[in-house]
Amino acid sequence: MAVLERVRLPADASSIGAARHWVRAQVAETRVPDPLLRDLELITSEIVTVAVRAGYGAIDLAVTADDFAIRVDVTDQHGEATEQLEDHALDLLVDGIDVVHAVSAEWDWHRNPDGTKTVWALLIRDEL
Q1: CB 106 within 8 A of CB 58
Q2: Where would I find the beta strands (DSSP E) of the chain?
Q3: Which superfamily does CATH assign the domain made up of 2-124 to?
Q4: DSSP 79
Q5: ∠ Cα 79 10 34 (to 5°)
Q6: Where are the domains of the chain?
Q7: Quick one: pLDDT band at residue 92, thresholds 50, 70, 90?
Q8: CA angle 106, 108, 110 (to 5 degrees)
Q9: Distance between CA atoms of 71 and 106, rounded to whole angstroms?
Q10: Could you read off the pLDDT of 7-35 as tens digits, one per residue?
């Protein structure tokens, strides 16, 4: 999969809508069908909402795509507080992650070596 683009957004509520619009713009030229595009926006919105609610620094958003799938990665900047907030951040995921789980083909999260956390979701193009 090729990275289409990356963007850094502030951890505030305005980033939720901005992330949806940004994701739509990034995949516009890849001929994504409208139902899949709506799912991508929904997943992005849910994951970014969790990152905003955690409220720790900037949010990095990346979109990767190929002919078969589209993946969105949302990284929040937990830094040294990651250990203390891991359970709390996962609790925040509960509401939105049900949506992510239902809509995506696959999703997961991981802690990065720099102490940040990335939540990602994958959509398969032919699952319509």
Answers
A1: no
A2: 2-9, 59-65, 69-76, 106-111, 117-124
A3: Histidine kinase-like ATPase, C-terminal domain (3.30.565.10)
A4: G
A5: 115
A6: 2-124
A7: low
A8: 155
A9: 9
A10: 999 999 999 999 999 999 999 888 888 89
